[in-house]
Write a structure and sequence with these properties.
It comes from Leptidea sinapis. The chain is mainly beta. The chain has three helices and 16 strands. It folds into two domains: 107 residues, Thrombin, subunit H (Beta Barrel), CATH 2.40.10.10; 103 residues, Thrombin, subunit H.
Length: 278
Amino acid sequence: MWFRVVFLAFLAAQQAQGETLTAGYVEDVRLDDVTQSRIVSGWEANLGQHPHQAALRILNWQWQLIGCGASVIHQNWVLTAAHCTANYQYVMVYAGLVQQSNAEYFSTSWEWYNFPTFDSQNPNLVQTNDIALIRVTIPMTYTNALKRIQVQSTADAFREYTELQMYASGWGRTWTLGPTSEELRWVYLRGVSSWECGALFGSLATSATICARFYNVTSQSICQNDLGTPILVGVSSFVAGVNSGGCHSGHPGGFIRPGPFHWWFQQTTGINFESLSD
């Protein structure tokens, strides 16, 4: 209780000072136009438009806050990227929101699970199994602005999304080296073939990787503070990937497919996410 009171006082002080919360972000050093990196060149979301979208504020051991995104997949669980939670001490989960300062739901968590082969001692390394589950301490109540989303099925786990319209959402940077967004934003992206993804990223692109690039404007992308956010296919109702990195204008971003991990999801949570119904 003492820690919670002190921590919340610390958080209030940081927010009062207008601190910009930024997440460490791994860039692909083989791409030479790093000065062109930028985030979503998209649109502000309406409340309830992306009710599965959650925001994370995570405290590290240097008492710094980072920001990430996540997907609500159950009343007690959200899905995110493992390097959002590796070597951190405390997670705050916000859901049912478009403005980060005005969420319907808030919960703290000290319980999260990174995929076992993810090296949590080196979270800034690009890793192929960058996926994690967070258990919230207060169960969520679904509303028009807060709903769970289906996770990509095992049967769909290795589907090709080449040239398909996809979309992602988040609170990441809105232009090159600019501030993060207070408003939830979303953008169209376009699926990239596994062959092209592998040609660009080599061994970092596995069968569990989806790549997606801009849809029709080269600045359309995800970037800092969008780690862990979901990518969806068209207007589908399932998470096809979890953002793991890549924010260079014109180049694809990398997402981890959740479909191949259902055995681990069930082993960790005791829930078969493929059989859930609202």
